[in-house]
Amino acid sequence: MVSSFCETYYTQSGAPIVAVSCSKGGTNTDFWLPGTPALSDAISRFHAAESYLEENGYIIDHKLMVWYQGCSDYQSSAEVYTDNTLAIFNAMKAEGIESIGVIQISNGPADRQSGHEMIQNAQTALCEQSQSDGIVMISVLPKQLERQADELHLTQSSYETLGADAAENLVQYLTTGSES
């Protein structure tokens, strides 16, 4: 997904992009809360990349975060998911992230669909309420894409499609100030 995202972002915007991976599959929002090793590591990676680029003469136009998370929160509540996610986003924004693009989670396996739908609705509401704060929905495509036999993970071609879609929508947001 990341390589497709970067290639499409560059093609659509003409701006080079540097992506710093800070992902860990199978985690819920508690794993990423402020003060946890995971968020501290993400912040450290972000600042290391930022310092490297600046020290080597690169001009950074945008400092962005892409968030594709929530499948493991399916047993939580919308309020807990939203509160945790906002805490994470606010911590990253305090470190210099200007906008956060949310990729909505997929429907997931049949036994988790109601929980996934609850998270999807929480993600939509969060973006609607927080767009002025730079939190925007950049893709709702995972609900429509082909998944692997486990019904949770997307196929590689689906991840590539998702990366391209998210990048196109993020470029549109950065260019026009509105979600597609």
Walk me through what this model shows.
- It is a single chain.
- The protein is mainly alpha-helical.
- It has one domain (2-176): 3-Layer(aba) Sandwich (Rossmann fold).
- It contains five helices and three strands.
- Strands 1-2-3 form a three-stranded parallel β-sheet.
- The mean pLDDT is 92.
Condensed summary:
The protein contains 5 helices and 3 strands, in the order H-H-E-H-E-H-E-H.
Overview features:
180 residues; mainly alpha; Rossmann fold; 8% strand; globular
Instruction: Report how far the terminal alpha carbons are from each other.
Output: 20 Å
Please identify the top-level CATH class: Alpha Beta
Q: Going by CATH, what is the homologous superfamily?
A: SGNH hydrolase
Q: Quick one: overall form?
A: globular
What is the CA-atom radius of gyration, in angstroms?
Answer: 16 Å
What would the CATH topology be? Answer: Rossmann fold
User: How many DSSP helices?
Assistant: 5
Question: Order of SSEs, N→C?
Answer: HHEHEHEH
CATH architecture descriptor name: 3-Layer(aba) Sandwich
Question: Main sheet: which strands, in order across?
Answer: 1-2-3
Largest sheet composition: 3 strands, parallel
Overall pLDDT score: 92
What is the strand tally? 3
Assembly of the depicted chains: single chain
Strand proportion, as a percent range, falls in 5-15%
Percentage of residues in helical conformation: 40-55%
Structural class assignment = mainly alpha
Number of domains: 1
The poorly predicted ranges are none
